Amino acid sequence: MSGADGIGQRGAAGAIARAHAEGRAALIGYLPVGYPSLAGSLDGVRALIAGGVDVVELGLPYSDPVLDGPVIASAAAAALAGGTRVDDVLEAVAAVAPSGVPIEVMTYYNPVFRRGVRRFAAELAAVGGAGLITPDLIPDEAADWIAAADDLALDKIFLVAPSSSEARLALTVAACRGFTYATSTMGVTGERASLSALSEPLVGRTRAAGGGYVCVGVGVSTPSQAREVAAFADGVIVGSALVQRCGRGADLEGFVRELRAAVRR
Fold this sequence. Notes:
alpha/beta, 12 helices
């Protein structure tokens, strides 16, 4: 089941549809739980919501974050050193889910596997989580997670990249619920001076493969870049720029308001 099809009330697709009805792309913001502290990360998420994000990506800190650049990897390391664990992430979801903004947990697959896939899915659903974004998991190896998510109507968000073949794109979008996450460039997360020219063609290829909603992340860090991506993608994902501001206590809400104004078409 892809992008806009058959989502539950908690899901990202409904939020994206509402953004489109307002004449804009959806704005999706990422912050890791536990950075700069547990309380600080929750304050940060509430600032994102107050600023107008449509979907929150809540990061589960992991010791081997292969997709993450230095900003997010450093934040995850600090969160782990401070004692942040899976239970803290679930408690964070429970604390912010009543806002009505879909909360997608961004996590590498090992913590899910170690806790037990069905247990993790059930606990996430119980606290009001919308689903998972799993950057290191491909649908071919995700049968247990797909089955558990389908049983509980949780979003299943997998990633595609400019290097993805047409066959890989078709397989991935068929497995997604909520949206398909298109990485704007090859490489790790992080702020960049400019975006890859491959982003727009990747969105088009993903849609041609049957994708519903396609949202673009990795490297989007300024209002002007968000405006550029909003012209061709269903949603704009911002991570490192928000994590940096959260870490230094900058005005997150104000920055999110700038991003939201930028994604209006």
